[in-house]
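Section 3.1: Structural characterization of target chains.
Under the original work plan, the team committed to producing a structural model for every single-chain target entering the pipeline before any wet-lab resources were allocated. The record below documents one such target. The sequence was received from the expression subgroup and is listed exactly as submitted; it comprises 426 residues.
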Amino acid sequence: MPIRPLLLLLGLLALNLPAALAEDTPQLHLSGFGSLAATRTDDPAIGFKRNFQARANADEWSFEADSRLGVQLDLQLNPSWQGVVQVVGMQRERGKFQPTVEWANLAWQVNPNWRLRLGRMVTPVTSTSESREVGYAQLGARAPLETVGIYPMVGHDGADLRYRQSLGSGEARVQVFAGQTAFKLPFLEYEVDQVAGALFTYTLNDWTLRYAHTRIRDARATGGSYLETTRPLVAGLNMIAPFCAATLCSDTITRINRLSSGWGGHFNVLSLGYEDGSWSLQTEYATRKLDTFVSDGRSLVALLGYHHGELTPYLGFSRADSTNRQRAVQFAVSNPAVQPTANMLAGIVSRNLYEPQAANRKLYTLGLRWDVHEQLALKFQLDQIRHKYTDANYNGFYVRQPDADGQLRPYDGRLRLYSLSADFVF
């Protein structure tokens, strides 16, 4: 977030905080949540994990992907002022259980319509972003990865401003936010100088319509093995760049250089939800457009459940598509003597940068939730996955596995993912 607006907000909060502290006795409330969850794929060729985790497990039960524990401390200074700190621990990029501060902010409820918040918060990109780690809050075994995965980061340090107002028979909310962030993958570290966006929500009876637009600018890779191993490739690409005879060649090299020089993009997510106590419906459509070599993308999620006492059977359909830059590329150059080098570099780009993004897939979901207690839910979920490109070495949530000699294990594009979880709150 730019320094001057941030200092202005800090000053505004500082002027009003002493009066708030003098009015009421602060109250502390400790709560938490967690999941003891096991997952298993039915094919040794494909492992499952979260995209920020180090290990993917294939064809064996594992508690690493979805198990987590969160603790939240709420500080109620008075009816207008509230602070929150939330820490969530789970397997992360180092391959071990690691706690991370997800929330740490102070909110000022100016009046019933306006709220100002400053600090660390989860970026509200999708309808489940702010509750995605609270397994108990999800109908299914986890927040839908197809739309959650459209946005590579999690939260930001900055500010947001929310306004709510009655509109017709319902309520409308408008929220704007801005800040900075950093995030880590097992092989790459990023810093993002600018995160900004707006969110519109309209609730009418049992329906909720939501649209979020998020932009990032000046995202730069600052470390990690991926950055180091691609330096020779980038040097070679920059050597042939003056000889590019086609837009594909020059555009690809420019996009790859932006990995460390700075890139940006925007994300749009449209959601429609319904909950009447018996039926539950969650639908979401998300798009991503970036100016680096990472593919643009789109995803769709639909999940329908029926509450029958303590049991809620549910079914769903999801799909995720990389819309470009997921297949082989060719570099045409003007100098014939440079063409062999260009062909070699194009092959490396295709295999190492583009093919890992070719995880286009469809998912068919069937599950059962059993609310055995008001603070405990047991879930069983079966996801039937269909991958479009069976020969690609894709990474992310579903990871191709090598055999003993380092070659990719044969895969026919069909995969089952089994999930068992006990989600709780306290």
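Confidence is low (pLDDT under 50) at residues 1-7.
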